[in-house]
């Protein structure tokens, strides 16, 4: 992992994978077919892309039970405890409707309503991601979303991973469908004979999934398009190099395009972390991926002063930030942009991936400047409420009409003035 | 305005203007040029599209003062009162950071931070829209956004409307630039020598502005792409036809593609509103636009029962909804999807456009199913905060490591396990 002086640092921004023109066309074609032909198209694409020939798309009760029995009881308990922690955290995020009443009889307010239906995409591949199920479904459930529809690609035998089914089962999600890729996003956006249409789609996926989400955006809502995982560690000389290195590598193993950055004002720490990364790297099962990631997107940024180090973090606006200093809470107010902030030596980043409670769906690639972790508000929407009293309208009708006329909108002025008939 | 029985009603959804392939290419070219050449490109496009040859892009102090003097004092007071009402409403929307501490020493929380810089697009054209300035700028100011940058296209003489400058002046916005179209969006997204880059762009515009916002989305945040204005009125036999008709027409005058819909279970009301619309329409200065809108997108939906009428409203998910019944508050809990809900006969829709306080930037074209009025939260973002104690990590490290290994992520497991050294 290279050490770079802050003064030599260029932009850390990575380009987002927008897909090729051909990939975009493929995705548009898939969406059009699913819109038109429903289940028939979904099954054909599943056979073509996932090599699975399915009679039924929906996961059966028997399959849920089998998944439950296949994993040992101790692990089931760990999953349940994680779900409990995640639910407890998200319950604190709930917003409430409010009203404000004036003496003239006017009531103004904001009503919060859950969306009707949410769709969750759970990626397939070699590993099963029960944590993805929890992190996407729980905020929707806490928000009060009644209908939750999950999709995940099957393997060649038409099966989906036990861990995913178990996680869905623990949360009481019954609408799980064996479909992935752009065809899954199309099915969620427009519905088929079997798969219900939803109002918002969340969850990560490959480039086809990301392109399909961009295509259907507007007809339904989507979460942010996720980029590769990132960690930045802000540490001073009190940090332990072995721990910092281990945490940097925990993100590097995700993806060859993941980014791991240490920002420090301590040259001794910079050097010992560099050594530790090298030695720990070789002993990792996913060493090839992690090595590539460290070489291409890993670095140690050495700053002249602590303030410069803090500024560097705000420039990066990292997905995950660890603050490892004598008194990390003192730094919290200075951190303006980060998806999740882990304070102190025991708050190793994986604590937040699975267990502590906060969401692991976080803004990547500098979008923490303007985006938030997935949260309960993402599954609700607001309506303004306006109840004007007769008194309020009498007091203000002429002002409102004048304002409307200045903007050239005569019918607006007349609409409020019509009410004058009532007190003539 | 046609009367349709609910049972004969097809979907009310209108297609969103996605622009032509040529328009998209033009917009991409403009963005690339502004990115590369900054102010030079901005001025060239302004000369080409707006016919204005500008030396300086920024509005001067003198121009603000001139705008202030050009409008009479009484109108200035109306604007100030509107700004006060809008500020008061949005101040109630403020979310606060929170923390939760456990007995084992763990602290979990959610930190709210304003975005650094917001950009507001104010459309040009024949009318000046000071209300647009208020509705986009005030939520950002209340959120605590330090840098607010406004752009608006100049006329051929290089001037921008007095009403817009006055509104900006009242709010203390000094960064106002004479630029519109896709070139304005590109300048806000990437910055030029003169125009500062921002993190989020809001405000309505023509198809080029909308396409440019879609293009830069991801590099910066944007608000929703707005469609034509809509009103739905849910009324029973107690409503006055003249008032309902006037309110329907207040939206119809906006745009030939605006939509005005009455939903009722009262046939006498349906018929008298139909007559009133006809007679009021002919007397409007913008009668041509309103007539086209009423013909193409206006209708009266006659329902068999009141429940069916309420369901119809939730299917439409209108931008503006008026509820005109004996006891409109009783209906509030049944309304699931609407941008703004106006209750009772005195809450004519224009009351909310300018004066009452809630925002007039609202979700259109059925997106109230999943979107909200522009609000203070749109200009802030959340960061999760996780401070795990040694005790908490000791209690949970083995569970977290096991969860990580089930997902195939060994470096995640080792990262937390490294901390065991501390209590060995």
Automatic annotation (TrEMBL), chains A, B:
Binding site for Zn(2+): 251, 254, 353, 412
Broad EC category: oxidoreductase
CDD domains according to UniProt: Histidinol_dh
The UniProt record lists the keyword Oxidoreductase: yes
Single Gene Ontology MF annotation: zinc ion binding
Pathway: Amino-acid biosynthesis; L-histidine biosynthesis; L-histidine from 5-phospho-alpha-D-ribose 1-diphosphate: step 9/9
GO biological process per UniProt: L-histidine biosynthetic process
Free-text cofactor note: Binds 1 zinc ion per subunit.
InterPro entries documented for this protein: Ald_DH/histidinol_DH (IPR016161), Histidinol_DH_CS (IPR001692), Histidinol_DH_monofunct (IPR022695), Hstdl_DH (IPR012131)
Binding site for NAD(+): 121, 183, 206
Residues at which substrate binds: 229, 251, 254, 320, 353, 407, 412
GO cellular component entries: cytosol
Protein name as it appears in the record: Histidinol dehydrogenase
Source organism (scientific name): Halobacillus dabanensis
């Amino acid at each position: 992992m290279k050490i770079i002086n802050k003064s030599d640092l260029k932009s850390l921004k990575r380009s987002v994978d927008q897909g090729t023109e051909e990939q975009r066309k493929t995705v548009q074609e898939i969406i059009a077919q699913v819109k038109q032909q429903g289940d028939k198209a979904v099954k054909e694409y599943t056979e073509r892309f996932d090599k699975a020939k399915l009679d039924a798309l929906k996961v059966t009760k028997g399959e849920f039970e089998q998944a439950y029995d296949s994993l040992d009881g101790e692990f089931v308990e760990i999953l349940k405890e994680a779900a409990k922690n995640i639910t407890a955290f998200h319950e604190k995020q709930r917003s409430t409707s409010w009203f404000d009443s004036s003496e003239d009889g006017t009531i103004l307010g904001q009503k919060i309503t859950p969306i009707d239906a949410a769709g969750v995409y759970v990626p397939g591949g070699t590993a099963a991601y029960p944590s993805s199920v929890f992190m996407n479904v729980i905020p929707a459930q806490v928000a009060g979303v009644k209908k939750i529809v999950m999709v995940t690609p099957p393997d060649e035998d038409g099966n989906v991973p036990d861990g995913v089914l178990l996680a869905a089962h623990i949360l009481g999600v019954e609408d799980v469908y064996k479909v992935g890729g752009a065809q899954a996003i199309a099915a969620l956006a427009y519905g088929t004979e079997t798969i219900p249409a939803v109002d918002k789609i969340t969850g990560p996926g490959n480039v086809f999934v990301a392109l399909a989400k961009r295509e259907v955006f507007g007809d339904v809502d989507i979460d942010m398009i996720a980029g590769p995982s990132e960690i930045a560690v802000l540490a001073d000389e009190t940090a332990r190099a072995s721990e910092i290195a281990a945490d940097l590598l925990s993100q590097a193993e995700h993806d060859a395009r993941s980014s791991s950055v240490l920002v420090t004002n301590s040259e001794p720490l910079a050097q010992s972390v560099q050594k530790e990364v090298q030695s720990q790297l070789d002993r990792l099962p996913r060493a090839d991926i992690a090595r590539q990631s460290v070489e291409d997107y890993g670095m140690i940024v050495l700053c002249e002063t602590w303030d410069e180090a803090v500024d560097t973090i705000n420039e990066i606006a990292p997905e995950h930030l660890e603050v490892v200093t004598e008194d990390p809470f003192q730094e919290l107010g200075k951190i303006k942009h980060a998806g999740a902030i882990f304070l102190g030596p025991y708050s190793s980043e994986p604590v937040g991936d699975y267990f502590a409670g906060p969401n692991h769906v976080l803004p990547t690639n500098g979008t923490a400047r303007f985006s938030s972790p997935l949260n309960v508000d993402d599954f609700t929407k607001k309506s303004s409420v306006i109840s004007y009293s007769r008194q309020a309208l009498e007091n203000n009708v002429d002002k409102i009409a004048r304002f409307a006329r200045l903007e050239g909108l005569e019918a607006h002025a007349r609409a409020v003035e019509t009410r004058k008939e009532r007190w003539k």
